[in-house]
Amino acid sequence: MNLPVLTTAPTGGTSIIFTLGYLVVIGAAFYFIAIRPQKKQQKAHAAMLTTIANGDSILTSSGFYGVVIDVMEDVVIVEFGNNKNCRIPMQKSAIIEIEKPEETK
């Protein structure tokens, strides 16, 4: 009884290439789904914060509405409510929305 002789041994080279290909595709998908939109949102928020000026109405991350009284490097002084005595310093990063006052002619 003669058994057939295999002249070539199976190699795992192609499976490594496919595995690396899958990893690259999954990494690219993760980048475009998670990382890129977050960086884009951070840039838009930073650009918005550079436009803060005195008299702007703002919304804070805690849900308070106020008016900007003074702008410093990382801190703004915000006046809350109609009471002129309620002025609180807060970080710029806590501001999530800015509304510019309308110019009247």
From TrEMBL:
<comment type="similarity">
    <text>Belongs to the YajC family.</text>
</comment>
<keyword id="KW-0812">Transmembrane</keyword>
<protein>
    <submittedName>
        <fullName>Preprotein translocase subunit YajC</fullName>
    </submittedName>
</protein>
<dbReference type="Pfam" id="PF02699">
    <property type="entry name" value="YajC"/>
</dbReference>
<keyword id="KW-0813">Transport</keyword>
<dbReference type="GO" id="GO:0015031">
    <property type="term" value="P:protein transport"/>
</dbReference>
<keyword id="KW-0653">Protein transport</keyword>
<keyword id="KW-0472">Membrane</keyword>
<keyword id="KW-1133">Transmembrane helix</keyword>
<dbReference type="InterPro" id="IPR003849">
    <property type="entry name" value="Preprotein_translocase_YajC"/>
</dbReference>
<feature type="transmembrane region" description="Helical">
    <location>
        <begin position="12"/>
        <end position="33"/>
    </location>
</feature>
<keyword id="KW-1003">Cell membrane</keyword>
<keyword id="KW-0811">Translocation</keyword>
<dbReference type="GO" id="GO:0005886">
    <property type="term" value="C:plasma membrane"/>
</dbReference>
